[in-house]
Amino acid sequence: MRKLVLLGGGYGNIRILLRLLPNNLPEDVEITLVDRTPFHSLKTEFYALAAGTVSDADVRVQFPQHERLKVANGEIIDIDVKEKMVFLDNGDRISYDDLVIGLGCEDKYHNVPGADEFTYSIQTIAKARETYQSLLGLDPGAIVGIVGAGLSGIELASELHESRPDLRIKLFDRSPRILRDFPERLSNYVKGWFEDHDVEVISNSNITKVEPNLLYNHDQTIEVDAVVWTAGIQPVKTVRKLDVEKDKSGRVIVTQYHHVPANEHIYVVGDCAASTFAPSAYLAEEQAEQIVKVLKAKWNGEDLPEKMPKIKLKGFMGSLGKKEGFAYLADRTVTGKIARLLKSGVLWMYKWHNG
């Protein structure tokens, strides 16, 4: 029996399962999915969990069930590519013939002193829960600093305002304007929403140090009661220490077939894979679609295409609370209630397709 092992139950590996199960898995192949939790977590919605506007159950989807799918729970501590073995923190060892690494990312603190110790995170469901507990317990009028005004920071700031309008929220943006790489109309809309809802955006910021209840922005100190870090990501430690070629961001360089150049049995999907695109759930799903085609061709003894088709992303969507949002789709900007409905519809469809 050939063994396909999927590391991580994120968007990429879930798409692989969706394409192979129940009827497209060869009879001589079995799958082992390894994840720290017994369910698929909707990471794109962790900001809402941390803000307290959705429940824990709203950001979980059960893994599919199949007679040749085994789910192993545990923390992955090492991958031995020579022995084709994965090691878990509970002592389990899992052998593989083909491996797909989709372990996601963790916060990158850019060597800012105190950032890893004195800030909260929304990178995992456990950390999002912890962040929610901290923010929930703040007194009225408390100051929350959110470092990083990318999509995660924007959505967290807006959702937190909706959940706790009694809090004072400061969003630190390193750029001169929010979403600076996109049309100015989009930036102005998001900026205007924050102004209308008394969320302070601090542009051109540079957080140089974090202390308990204190942020250093350039040479200025700012008092805070809690800080959430959304200012960058990096592959998880297990991937960073993997002895394979990586780009300057620590992501694994892969071929057009999404496997490591020196090992055609190790595939990488999602935030761990080097790409010209910014990491996203949609990108991971598109990579997974191609990995499935490559695996099926190899299992059937077929030649791989000389050139894989280029991945084309449609854009992105973001929310501003539960009633408004913004989107950039096919080079067009959509804002307001329509954009929010679009995002809600995509989320509903995703849950429906994944059971």
TrEMBL record:
Signal sequence span per UniProt? none
Instruction: Write down the EC number.
Output: 1.6.5.-
- Enzyme class at the top of the EC tree: oxidoreductase
Q: Name one Pfam family in it.
A: Pyr_redox_2
Q: Can the keyword Flavoprotein be found in this entry's annotation?
A: yes
Q: Which Gene3D superfamilies match?
A: 3.50.50.100
Single GO MF annotation: oxidoreductase activity
What cofactor does its activity depend on?
A: FAD
> By its UniProt entry, which SUPFAM superfamilies does this protein fall under?
FAD/NAD(P)-binding domain (SSF51905)
Which keywords fit this entry according to its UniProt record? FAD, Flavoprotein, Oxidoreductase
> Ranges for the FAD/NAD(P)-binding domain?
3-284
Family note: Belongs to the NADH dehydrogenase family.
Instruction: Output this protein's name.
Output: NAD(P)/FAD-dependent oxidoreductase
Give the species: Chungangia koreensis
